[in-house]
Amino acid sequence: MTDTLRVSGIEVFAHHGVFAHERRDGQRFVIDLAIGTDTRSAAASDDLKDTVDYGSVVAQVVEAATSEPVDLIETLATRLADVVLRQARVEWVEVTLHKPEAPIDATFQDVALTITRSRA
Q1: Average pLDDT, stretch 96-103?
Q2: Which of 36, 42, 63, 82 could form a disulfide with 50 if both were Cys (CB 3.0 to 4.6 A apart)?
Q3: Do the Cβ atoms of 82 and 33 come closer than 8 Å?
Q4: Any residues with CB less than 8 A from the CB of 104 and at least 6 apart, and which?
Q5: Which pTM value belongs to this model?
Q6: What is the edge-to-edge ordering of all strands in the sheet holding 92-98?
Q7: Which residues lie closer than 8 Å to 90 by C-beta, 6 or more apart?
Q8: Rounded CA gap, 55 and 45, in Å?
Q9: Active-site residue among 8, 34, 99, 114?
Q10: Residue 83: what pLDDT?
Q11: Measured CA distances, 10 to 6, 50, 73, 92 (Å)
């Protein structure tokens, strides 16, 4: 049995993208996480060591998102999922990576990719 912990709207400025200007100038990315974890022991103990420390997870995700540039949001989303899955109490993670300033020659609100990864 798992519960879902959500952290939404994590904003980072990074230099990912296929085009040279994306790598050079950078842009804003927004990350939403849904984390599957069993929270029963944390609820019983009321102790941080018995749950997913979402502050620590967010710090690690921000670090991973702003590190070495990649071309594709698919690559970056997978990197972020791998970071979250390193947490012992995480059973699965859903990462939605938004690229609201993607270089598209049209009026649009957002480009977003959602991936789900699990330990199994």
Answers
A1: 97
A2: 42
A3: no
A4: 111
A5: 0.95
A6: 3-14, 27-37, 92-98, 112-118
A7: 35, 36, 37, 52, 84, 119
A8: 19
A9: 99
A10: 98
A11: 11, 24, 15, 19
